[in-house]
Amino acid sequence: MKHPDLYRGEEVVVLGLAKSGVQVAKVLHERGALVTVNDKKERDQSPEASELESLGISVICGGHPDGLIHEGVRLVVKNPGIPYSVPPVQKALQLGVEVVTEVEVAYRLCVAPMIGITGSNGKTTTTTWVGHMLEAAGMNPIVAGNIGTPLSQAALEATEDNWMVVELSSFQLKGTETFRPKVGCLLNVAETHLDYHGDMKDYVASKAKLFANQLESDTAVLNWDDPVCRELVPYVQASILPFSTSEELAQGIFVSPSFVPDREDELKRVILYRDAMGQETEIAAVDSIGLPGRFNVENALAACAIAIAAGADPAGLGGVLASFRGVEHRLEYVADKGGAVYYNNSKATNSKATTMALASFRQPVVLIAGGLDRGSDYMELLPVLGSGVKALVALGQTKDKLVQVAGLAGLKHIISVDNGESAAAVLQQAVREASAIAEAGDVVLLSPACASWDMFTSYEERGRIFKAAVHNL
């Protein structure tokens, strides 16, 4: 541990009984902190409370009592999704109490070097890919963070011989102070989560905290094709390792020849790594990558850059690029029904993710989309709906907006699904409607361009119901 006794005898408040909150409460309690966990949910909706209380941890459910935050509190660890506007967080900030997310606590306790990966799209795929690459290189990775295992739990298992490979959201990064990854990667930036951040300035600033404490001896991996990533360059102190699909780089990871409009099929492309001395290593042929879509080429380049920055041999990465078959709910092949191929891309929770998914297919696409309304007008989808999309089946809070954009795009087949039944029944009907339109050679794609919380508990639930509906056709 870097600081095993950091909070011994100190009062700590953990806000939120989610998985990461439960784990960080246990970790701090084991290290002698006086922990109180608070959740606005009622006690009967908080099954984790009994487990924590059995360990001697105080749990308060059903609201935020006035005396929860006071001058004697040393630290507040909040669930990443809790907004900074809630009263206990505001009270802590007024009193000068440090407010962080679990990522910050885990970093302070972990002895293993960390790789931090963030971006609007592609985080989980890239993080998982890096884990496979480092495993193949014998570098003992532990994959954790927003991807599944709470970072505070994984941090306790790590030794100096491990590499922590951590997926990070903007919510998590916003609540960091000293967090310093040895390798940090920003994949891309799209307009999303504005209901939480308020504006793009705060969203980008939260992402950029990944690099805030890095030194020149660390590495910042940046997408050279993303203008927001490039705008951050003057503020990054670490050594920059860029990646690009559209530009040959003096140093970095790139595709040769570069991708240019209307020339994506006929050329034989390879992924190259060029080091600071100008020496080149051919990593793999682009068409050998095990995942479809140009955006997965970007993810592959990012994963290679991260692995190389951590010390992996670039010549040994090609096999993992070819063998990796992706992550559930991310352009996941489901089935072939009547000659039409069905894909589950439920993780596409913004327009850019759906645009990238649609660009992966040359076949006509029957698109199922819609979900939580976060204020977007979805005009970003207009160009892609007008080229290659055969039909739209819209559902959820945003269905009317999507129908309007599809009409502007000139789609002939536009269906809005809302049968007044359960969320599962609505999605099942959407699958049946899409199936009735799809012909042999078409793709039926669930790529909602929206979060799932208007109808489902998570994008995972949405994706699994979709897959079950496809298999039941």
TrEMBL record:
Q: Keywords in alphabetical order, please.
A: ATP-binding, Cell cycle, Cell division, Cell shape, Cell wall biogenesis/degradation, Cytoplasm, Ligase, Nucleotide-binding, Peptidoglycan synthesis
Q: Which superkingdom?
A: Bacteria
Q: Which SUPFAM superfamilies match?
A: MurCD N-terminal domain (SSF51984), MurD-like peptide ligases, catalytic domain (SSF53623), MurD-like peptide ligases, peptide-binding domain (SSF53244)
Ranges where the Mur ligase central domain occurs: 117-307
Using the record, list the residue span of the signal peptide; answer none if the entry has no such feature. none
Q: Where does ATP bind?
A: G119, S120, N121, G122, K123, T124, T125
InterPro entries found in the cross-reference section:
Mur-like_cat_sf, Mur_ligase_C, Mur_ligase_C_dom_sf, Mur_ligase_cen, MurD
User: GO biological process: what's one of them?
Assistant: regulation of cell shape
Q: Which residues form the Mur ligase C-terminal domain?
A: 329-450
* E.C. designation(s): 6.3.2.9
Instruction: Indicate whether RNA-binding appears among the record's keywords.
Output: no
The main place the protein resides is cytoplasm
A GO CC term attached to the entry: cytoplasm
Which is a Pfam family this sequence falls into? Mur_ligase_M
* EC class name: ligase
Gene3D superfamilies with a match to the protein in the record? Mur ligase, C-terminal domain (3.90.190.20), Mur-like, catalytic domain (3.40.1190.10), NAD(P)-binding Rossmann-like Domain (3.40.50.720)
Note whether Cytoplasm occurs among the keywords: yes
One GO MF term attached to the UniProt entry: UDP-N-acetylmuramoylalanine-D-glutamate ligase activity
Q: In which pathway does it act?
A: Cell wall biogenesis; peptidoglycan biosynthesis
Give compartment(s): Cytoplasm
Write out the catalysed reaction: UDP-N-acetyl-alpha-D-muramoyl-L-alanine + D-glutamate + ATP = UDP-N-acetyl-alpha-D-muramoyl-L-alanyl-D-glutamate + ADP + phosphate + H(+)
Give the UniProt family note. Belongs to the MurCDEF family.
Q: Which NCBIfam families match?
A: murD (TIGR01087)
Per the entry, what this protein does is: Cell wall formation. Catalyzes the addition of glutamate to the nucleotide precursor UDP-N-acetylmuramoyl-L-alanine (UMA).
Which protein are we looking at? UDP-N-acetylmuramoylalanine--D-glutamate ligase
Per the UniProt record, the source organism is Paenibacillus albidus
